[in-house]
């Protein structure tokens, strides 16, 4: 079973060091490094890239938003989990559109953090209650005429079926097994959907699924 490298950036030393110890206790986390701000994190990643970066939103020198922007631009393979004290809908929505893979409140239970780490690597996204609430609220605030039905019409029935399963957090392998398709076929369908919808990651697909009414 593959083990992962996880880096964390947070300016509160006591919290950060406690998080490092917690991360090291996770069965499938192999290596943990920590930084006290975004700039320091990016320097660490320049020398050795982790599988996952856990980023606090509010930090001095370089905050979480700027850090994520730089990470997505320079290290697109690194999965990003945002840690925040505030469940601001607009902020989370903006960060999702940017390409962040998961959002956790700082009072999250350790087992959810562990689950999120594995999910972002294996499924490209962690679809928790916080994200679902933000996406549902975004849909209710949009006028019905703004629903992207024209893009929905471009998807085949098979693609819609796969999109629903992506939103249910099934892996590529699990989707393939469920639909009797090869993993490559599922991947191709996912790429085609992203192309048709005009998004570049799984986060964009999930957001679209809510907006189009495929999931609620």
UniProtKB/TrEMBL annotation:
Record keywords, A-Z: DNA-binding, Phosphoprotein, Transcription, Transcription regulation
Modified residues (4-aspartylphosphate): 56
Protein name, per record: Response regulator transcription factor
Pfam families the UniProt entry points to: GerE, Response_reg
A molecular-function term among this protein's GO annotations: DNA binding
Keyword Transcription: yes
BP GO annotations: phosphorelay signal transduction system; regulation of DNA-templated transcription
Gene3D superfamilies assigned: 3.40.50.2300
InterPro entries, A to Z: CheY-like_superfamily, NreC/VraR/RcsB-like_REC, Sig_transdc_resp-reg_C-effctor, Sig_transdc_resp-reg_receiver, Tscrpt_reg_LuxR_C, WalR-like
Residue ranges of domain Response regulatory in the record: 5-121
HTH luxR-type domain segment(s): 148-213
PROSITE patterns: HTH_LUXR_2, RESPONSE_REGULATORY
SUPFAM superfamilies named among the record's database cross-references: C-terminal effector domain of the bipartite response regulators, CheY-like
């Amino acid at each position: 079973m593959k083990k992962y490298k996880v880096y964390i950036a947070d300016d509160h030393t006591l919290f950060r060091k406690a998080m490092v110890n917690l991360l090291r206790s996770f069965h499938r986390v192999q290596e943990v490094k920590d930084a006290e701000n975004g700039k320091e994190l990016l320097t660490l990643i320049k020398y050795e890239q982790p599988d996952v970066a856990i980023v606090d939103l509010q930090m001095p020198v370089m905050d979480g938003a700027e850090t994520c922007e730089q990470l997505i631009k320079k290290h697109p393979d690194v999965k990003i989990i945002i840690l925040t004290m505030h469940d601001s809908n607009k902020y989370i929505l903006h960060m999702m559109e940017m390409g962040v893979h998961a959002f956790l409140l700082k009072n999250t239970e350790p087992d959810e953090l562990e689950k999120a780490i594995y999910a972002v690597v294996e499924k490209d996204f962690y679809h928790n209650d916080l994200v679902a609430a933000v996406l549902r609220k975004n849909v209710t605030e949009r006028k019905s005429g703004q629903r992207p039905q024209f893009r929905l019409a471009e998807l085949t029935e098979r693609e819609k079926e796969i999109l629903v399963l992506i939103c249910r957090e099934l892996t590529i392998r699990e989707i393939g097994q469920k639909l009797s398709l090869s993993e490559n076929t599922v991947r191709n369908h996912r790429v085609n959907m992203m192309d048709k919808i005009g998004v570049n990651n799984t986060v964009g697909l999930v957001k679209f699924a809510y907006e189009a009414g495929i999931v609620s």
